[in-house]
Design a protein that fits this description.
Cofactor: Mg(2+)
Number of strands: 37
Shape: elongated
Radius of gyration: 43 Å
Strand content: 15-25%
Structural class: alpha/beta
CATH class of one domain: Alpha Beta
GO biological process, one term: phosphate-containing compound metabolic process
Pathway: Sulfur metabolism
Pfam family, one: Pyrophosphatase
Strand order of the largest sheet: 4-5-3-6-7
Number of helices: 34
Distance between the termini: 142 Å
Helix content: 25-40%
Family: Belongs to the PPase family.
CATH superfamily of one domain: Inorganic pyrophosphatase
CATH topology of one domain: Inorganic Pyrophosphatase
C-alpha cells in the first residue's frame, strides 16, 4: 500500500497540469511509444505568472512513478510528459515557472497530424469532415461571424451586445451566442486570473470557442475587455486562418465617462484603493488602431448603436446567408450569384448567335403566341425574381392564394427547380423552404389553336413575338393549362368589376395560359426617346453604388411631380438620415408599363421629372431616375406588394407609400361600394406592412398621409391643426384644369378660388415642369404623346411605297407608288397577272395581292377607301386608339385583291349582303410579305365569314414564289402539306373578335373551305369592270355576241357548274343573287369578248370612292 502523501503528491503533478522536472542528465528515462512523440503536455494548474516554489527533484519519486504507470493505464498520457523535462526546465527562470512561455511552447507543440476524419488529409482542409460552410449558411439563412467587442469596463459592451442579441433573435429570427467576460469565467475560464498571461489565455480560449460557434453559422458576440492588442490580433488571425468573418468593435468611450457610469461600482473600489491593477486605471489598455467598427456609444442612443451594428452585419452579408454585396444594399430575393438579366438575355449570356437562331427556328415550328413587351421586359431583366418566365400553374396558384412563392434557391431540400418544372399535382413531398413575395399573376394567355399547335409540335420550345412581328425569344418546356379568369380576378383584385380596364383585359385573353421559362434574344429597347432612363435592376444597382448609397428608397410616380411629392421625398430622406444612414439615395421611379387611357403619358412624366431635377427641387446628387417597366393593373392592396418587392430587386430597402396606392375608381358596372373608390385609401399600405415583402426585414415602408400647401411660406407640408386656414389642398382634378387653362403663378395673397384667378400657387411646381404639364393638357388630343412603354419600330414596307407618320400611331400611312406618282392599291393595280411567270402553275390563273397585314404582326392595317389614293393605314377603336388583333398572332399574310368589291346589294344564300370592301385574301406562305407589296398568288380556296350581318369572303391563296406552290394547288393539298392549318384558320376567323368582347363570328358551309374553283368563282363575282366609270361588271351567262359558249373559255369546270345551275332551274334571282352576276372572272370574260353591261352606277360610285375622286365623265369635280 502506497503512502497517502505519495498519491497526493503524484496527483498534484499529474492532474494539476503535469510534472515539473529538473534535469540536465542525458540518462533521463526515454519513452519509446511512437505516439508519445506527438502529444503535448497538459497545462499546469498554476495561478499567476510564477509558481509558488521550484519544481521537485524527480530522483526521489522516479521508482514510485514507474510503478504507478504500470498499475494505472489511465495515467500513462500524463507520464509521457516526462519527455518534456528539458522544455519545462527551459521555462523556469531563477526557480520561478513562466506559465506564459510554457503555454506558448505547448501550443507550438500541437500535434500536426491530428485530423477530424479520414477524408481529410494531414495538413489539409478539414471541410471534408463537415457540411461545407457555404451550404450551411445558405440553409440557415445567416452567416456566422464574430463581433469582438473590446473596451474599458463599463464602456457598454455587454449592454449593447444584449440589445443586439435581442434584436437579432426576436426581430430577425437569427441564431446568436454571447461570450461575455463574466459568463465565461464561471466555467470555461474559471481557472484563470487577471495576470497578463491569464488574460492572454482567456482571450485565446474565448477566441477558439468563438471560432467553433462562428463556423456553425452562429452570430457570436464576444464582450471581453481584452486589453492587449496582440491577444486580439491573435484571435483575429485564428478566424482568418479558418476563413471565418471577424469584426473588431471598439467601444470608444473615454475613461472619465466609464468612471461616471461605473455600473458595477468597480471604479469606486479602485478609487478607494480596494482594487489594484485595474485596466485603464493602473493597468494598461491598448485600444485598437484600426477597428472594424468604432462605436462612440457615449454620444449615441442604445437603439442607434444596435442599428449601426445591424447595418454592418448587412454589409457583411451575415443576415442573408447567401451572396452579399460590399455596399450592404440588398440583392434580389433568391439571388445565387448571377443577375437574372445575365442568365435570361441570350446576348448577355453564353449562347452564341447561331445556337440562338437554331432555337428560334425550332420553336417557330410550333406556335407563335403574342407576348406583351412589358411582360417580357419585366421577366427578362429580373424585375419579378425569382420568376424566370411566365407562371406555370403551380406558381400561379401560389401567387393567387398566398401572394408569395416557396423557393429553394440553394437546393437545400431538392426543390430548387420545383417552380421551373411542369406542375405535378402528385408531388406532395417536395416543397421550397423559403417564402418570397409574388403578389400578381404574370401570365401569357393563348387561344385554342395556339394550344393545339404547341401540343402537337415536336419542338420543346415556343417562339415569342411581339405585336409588330418581331421575334423576342423562346419559351422552354411549355406548360398549357386553363385560364380560370374568375379565379384570377377574384383573388387578385378582390372585386368583380367588368368596367375595370385591367379586369376587362383579363377577360379578353384566350381560354388557356402558357407557362414556361424564357430566354430573350436581346435586351428590350423601345426606341421612343426614353431608353436612357430605362435601367435594368443590375444597372440601377450599379448607379446606386456609384453614388455611395448605404440605403435606397424608391418613390413610384404616375403623375407629374409637384412640391407635395418633393416634400415626401425630401422628408423621407431626412427620416433615414435621422435613423443613422449616411447617404440615402432616392430612386425616382416612374411607372413605365401599360396604364389606362386617362393617365398622364409616360413622356410627359419623365421629362417633367427631369425638369424637377434640373431645377433642383430634388437634388440630383442623391437621386437616380429609372423607369419601372411593369404594367399598372390597378389592383390596390395586392398590386402595391408587387411594386415594393420589385423595387427590392434593384437594391431598394424602403418604398414610399401614400394614400390609395394602386387604387382606382369603381366603374358603373361594379357591384356596390361604400364610396366611389374600389379600395379604401388606407388598405394598400396596411396590407403591405403585413405582407411577405417585409418578412426578411430587407424591405421597409416610408408611409405618409395627406399633405397641404402652406400659403404663408409657399411650401407643401403636413397640416398644422393650429392654423388650418393657412393651408389649402390642391387636388389632381384642379391641377389638370389649371394646366389646361395655362395658369400662371399666383401673387400674394393666394386667392381662395384658383380656377377663377387662373393661377397656380407659387412653388407648387418648378416653372419648366409646369410648362410641360400645361403643354400636355392644352394639346391632350395630340397623337404624339407616348402613353406608356411601346416599342417604336420601323415596319417591313415594300420598296415601291412611301410611308408617312409613325408606325403604331393613327397618322401612319403607306402609299403605293408607280414611278414618281402615287397609285391606288385598290384601283391602279391589275387583278390578274398579265403573264405567267412560273411554268409550274401555268395552268392556273395568277392574281395580284396587296399585303395590308404582314404575317406575325397584329396591327389592323387596311386600305382606306375614303382617303386620297387609298393609303394603307391602321384601323382604330371606338375611342380613337390604334386597333390591334388580340386573339393570337396572325399566322398568315393578310391583304386584298385589287379591283374587287363585295357588293352590299348582292345577297348571299344566307341572306347577307357584301361588306362594301375589297375582297380579302389570306396568304399562307412561309414568310412575311412586306406591307404594301404586290405579290403574285394562286387561289387555293375560300371561307365565307358572316361578320356582323355582312358577307366577308376570305380567299385562301399561296404566293407563286413559295417553294411549295409546285405541289399545292387547292386546300386539300394545303392540308396535306400543313395538317391542321385550315382548322386554325377557321378558329381564328370565328374567334378573333371575342378577345375584344364581341360575339363569335359565323362561317357559312359549317366552316368548310371551298375548293379552288369555287373560290375563283367568288373572286370573279367581286371584280369591277372599269375604274374610269366605276361601274360594277357582270358577264352574261348565255352566249356572247360571237356565239362562243362559256365551256370554251378555258374554264370548263366553271362552265359546267353554270350549266348545271341553269338546267336545275335555279335562277340567280331565286337564289338571292343579283341577276347579271357572272361566276367567271372579268379578265377571262374580257379576253373572250363577253358582253358587259353597267349596273347601278350610283351604288358603285358610292362604294368605290377612287382615291376620294369622281371622274369628270360623271359630271362631278375631280
Amino acid at each position: 500500500m502506497k503512502r497517502p502523501w505519495v498519491w497526493g503528491l503524484f496527483l498534484v503533478f499529474a492532474i494539476g497540469g503535469g510534472l515539473l522536472l529538473t534535469s540536465g542528465s542525458s540518462s533521463a528515462t526515454e519513452v519509446t511509444d511512437p505516439a508519445s512523440q506527438t502529444i503535448a503536455p497538459p497545462p499546469l494548474n498554476l495561478r499567476g505568472s510564477n509558481a509558488a516554489s521550484p519544481p521537485p527533484d524527480t530522483t526521489e519519486i522516479s521508482a514510485l512513478f514507474e510503478e504507478v504507470v504500470l498499475e494505472n493505464s489511465q495515467l500513462r498520457s500524463q507520464v509521457q510528459s516526462i519527455r518534456f523535462t528539458n522544455e519545462l526546465a527551459a521555462n523556469t527562470v531563477d526557480g520561478d515557472f513562466d506559465i506564459a512561455a510554457y503555454r506558448a511552447a505547448a501550443l507550438e507543440a500541437t500535434p500536426p497530424n491530428i485530423i477530424e476524419c479520414a477524408e481529410a488529409n494531414e495538413g489539409g482542409s478539414q471541410d471534408a469532415c463537415h457540411l461545407p460552410s457555404a451550404r450551411r449558411f445558405e440553409a440557415l439563412n445567416q452567416e456566422g461571424i464574430t463581433l469582438w467587442m473590446t473596451g474599458l469596463s463599463g464602456s457598454g459592451k455587454s449592454t449593447i451586445a444584449k440589445a443586439l442579441e435581442e434584436t437579432l433573435v426576436l426581430k430577425y429570427g437569427k441564431h446568436v451566442q454571447m461570450l461575455d467576460g463574466d459568463n465565461v469565467r464561471t466555467g470555461l475560464n474559471r481557472d484563470l486570473g487577471f495576470s497578463p498571461a491569464d488574460r492572454a489565455e482567456s482571450v485565446r480560449r474565448v477566441g477558439e470557442m468563438a471560432c467553433l460557434f462562428n463556423g456553425g453559422g452562429v452570430i457570436t458576440l464576444v464582450t471581453l475587455v481584452s486589453p492587449y492588442r496582440a491577444d486580439r490580433e491573435a484571435a483575429r488571425q485564428r478566424h482568418e486562418d479558418q476563413g471565418l468573418k471577424y469584426l473588431e468593435v471598439f467601444m470608444n468611450v473615454p475613461l472619465d465617462v466609464v468612471q461616471e457610469r461605473d455600473p458595477k461600482g468597480l471604479y469606486a473600489k479602485v478609487a478607494a484603493g480596494e482594487l489594484k491593477g485595474f485596466t485603464g486605471v493602473d493597468a494598461p489598455y491598448e485600444q485598437p488602431l484600426h477597428p472594424d467598427v468604432d462605436l462612440p456609444n457615449w454620444d449615441l442612443e442604445l437603439d442607434e448603436c444596435v442599428r449601426i451594428l445591424i447595418e454592418k452585419l448587412r454589409v457583411e452579408g451575415v443576415l442573408d446567408g447567401g451572396p452579399s454585396d460590399p455596399s450592404g444594399l440588398p440583392l434580389p430575393p433568391g439571388f445565387t450569384g448571377a443577375w437574372l438579366e445575365d442568365e435570361l438575355i441570350i446576348s448577355n449570356n453564353k449562347f452564341s448567335a447561331s445556337s440562338a437562331l437554331a432555337t428560334k427556328r425550332a420553336a417557330e415550328d410550333g406556335s407563335l403566341p403574342q407576348a406583351r413587351l412589358n411582360d417580357i421586359d419585366v421577366i427578362s431583366e429580373g424585375w419579378a425574381p425569382p420568376l424566370r418566365g411566365f407562371m406555370r400553374e403551380g406558381v400561379l396558384l401560389q401567387a393567387l392564394h398566398f401572394n408569395s412563392l416557396l423557393i429553394d434557391p440553394f437546393d437545400d431540400v431538392g426543390a430548387k427547380e420545383l417552380n421551373f418544372q411542369q406542375t405535378n399535382w402528385n408531388n406532395n413531398e417536395v416543397r421550397g423552404r423559403k417564402r418570397v413575395s409574388m403578389a400578381v399573376p404574370i401570365v401569357l394567355p393563348i387561344t385554342e389553336f395556339t394550344k393545339s399547335a404547341i401540343e402537337t409540335s415536336p419542338s420543346g420550345a415556343v417562339a415569342l413575338i411581339d405585336k409588330d412581328g418581331h421575334a423576342l425569344g423562346v419559351l422552354k418546356n411549355p406548360e398549357v393549362y386553363p385560364n380560370r379568369k374568375e379565379e384570377i380576378v377574384s383573388r387578385c383584385f378582390g372585386a368583380i368589376d367588368p368596367g375595370h380596364p385591367y379586369i376587362a383585359h383579363v377577360y379578353s385573353g384566350g381560354n388557356y395560359l402558357l407557362g414556361g421559362e424564357v430566354e430573350v434574344f436581346e435586351p428590350i429597347r423601345y426606341r421612343d426617346g426614353l431608353d436612357k432612363w430605362r435601367l435594368t435592376p443590375k444597372e440601377l444597382y450599379t448607379n446606386f453604388k456609384a453614388k455611395g448609397a448605404d440605403v435606397v428608397f424608391a418613390f413610384q410616380t404616375r403623375n407629374p411631380t409637384h412640391a407635395g411629392h418633393a416634400y415626401l421625398m425630401r422628408t423621407g430622406r431626412e427620416r433615414l438620415v435621422a435613423a443613422g444612414y449616411q447617404n440615402p439615395v432616392l430612386w425616382l421611379s416612374p411607372l413605365g408599363g401599360w396604364t389606362k387611357s386617362d393617365d398622364v403619358p409616360l413622356d410627359v412624366r419623365v421629362t417633367q421629372h427631369q425638369a424637377v431635377l434640373d431645377e433642383r427641387m430634388l437634388d440630383p446628387d442623391w437621386t437616380v431616375m429609372g423607369i419601372w417597366p411593369a404594367p399598372m393593373i390597378y389592383a390596390g392592396p395586392t398590386e402595391v406588394q408587387f411594386h415594393a418587392a420589385s423595387r427590392r430587386a434593384a437594391g431598394a430597402s424602403f418604398f414610399v407609400v401614400g394614400r390609395d396606392a394602386a387604387g382606382i375608381k369603381s366603374s358603373p358596372e361594379a357591384t356596390w361600394n361604400p364610396d366611389d373608390d374600389m379600395y379604401d385609401a388606407n388598405h394598400a399600405r396596411f396590407a403591405l406592412q403585413m405582407s411577405p415583402v417585409l418578412e426578411d426585414a430587407r424591405m421597409a415602408l416610408l408611409s405618409f398621409d395627406k399633405f397641404y400647401y402652406d400659403k404663408t411660406d409657399h411650401q407643401m407640408k403636413a397640416l398644422d391643426p393650429s392654423r388650418e386656414d393657412d393651408f389649402i389642398s390642391i387636388s389632381g382634378s384642379k391641377m389638370r384644369k389649371l394646366a389646361a387653362q395655362g395658369a400662371t403663378p399666383c401673387r400674394d395673397p393666394i386667392p381662395s378660388d384658383l380656377l377663377a384667378a387662373n393661377c397656380v400657387p407659387q412653388g407648387f411646381m418648378v416653372p419648366s415642369g409646369w410648362a410641360i404639364v400645361c403643354d400636355y393638357y392644352q394639346n391632350i388630343e395630340s397623337p404624339d404623346w407616348i402613353p406608356w412603354s411601346k416599342a417604336v419600330v420601323q415596319p417591313l414596307v415594300d420598296e415601291n411605297t412611301v410611308a408617312h407618320g409613325t408606325y403604331g400611331k393613327t397618322d401612319f400611312a403607306v402609299f403605293l407608288t408607280r414611278g414618281s406618282k402615287q397609285a391606288s392599291p385598290w384601283h391602279d393595280i391589275p387583278l390578274v397577272v398579265p403573264t405567267t411567270t412560273s411554268a409550274a402553275v401555268s395552268s392556273t390563273a395568277q392574281f395580284n395581292m396587296i399585303t395590308e397585314i404582314p404575317k406575325h404582326t397584329s396591327a389592323k392595317m387596311e386600305v382606306m377607301k375614303d382617303k386620297w389614293s387609298n393609303p394603307i393605314m391602321q384601323d382604330t377603336n371606338k375611342d380613337g386608339s390604334p386597333r390591334y388583333y388580340t386573339y393570337g398572332v396572325p399566322f398568315f399574310n393578310y391583304g386584298l385583291l385589287p379591283q374587287t368589291w363585295e357588293d352590299p346589294h348582292m345577297i348571299s344564300d344566307e341572306g347577307f349582303g357584301g361588306d362594301n370592301d375589297p375582297l380579302d385574301v389570306i396568304e399562307v406562305g412561309e414568310s412575311p410579305l412586306a406591307l404594301g407589296s404586290v405579290t403574285e398568288v394562286k387561289v387555293l380556296g375560300s371561307l365565307e365569314l358572316i361578320d356582323e350581318g355582312e358577307t366577308d369572303h376570305k380567299i385562301i391563296a399561296l404566293r407563286t414564289s413559295d417553294p411549295r406552290s409546285v405541289s399545292i394547288n387547292d386546300v386539300k393539298d394545303l392540308e396535306n402539306h400543313v395538317p391542321g392549318l385550315t382548322a386554325r384558320l377557321v378558329d381564328w376567323l370565328k374567334m378573333y373578335k371575342t378577345s375584344d368582347g364581341k360575339a363569335i363570328n359565323v362561317l357559312s358551309n359549317s366552316g368548310e373551305p371551298t375548293s379552288r374553283l369555287e373560290a375563283q368563282c367568288v373572286q370573279s363575282k367581286m371584280e369591277s369592270l372599269d375604274q374610269n366609270n366605276m361601274f360594277a361588271c357582270t358577264c352574261d351567262l348565255e352566249m356572247d355576241d360571237v356565239g362562243q359558249k362559256p365551256i370554251e373559255t378555258g374554264y370548263p369546270e366553271l362552265a359546267a357548274k353554270n350549266r348545271d345551275l341553269k338546267s336545275s332551274g335555279r335562277s340567280r334571282a331565286s337564289s338571292g343573287r343579283t341577276p347579271g352576276r357572272s361566276l367567271i372572272g372579268a379578265a377571262a370574260a374580257r379576253s373572250h369578248h363577253w358582253q358587259w353591261r353597267p349596273r347601278r352606277p350610283e351604288a358603285a360610285r358610292a362604294a368605290l370612292a377612287y382615291g376620294g375622286r369622281l371622274t369628270a365623265a360623271e359630271g362631278q369635280p375631280v
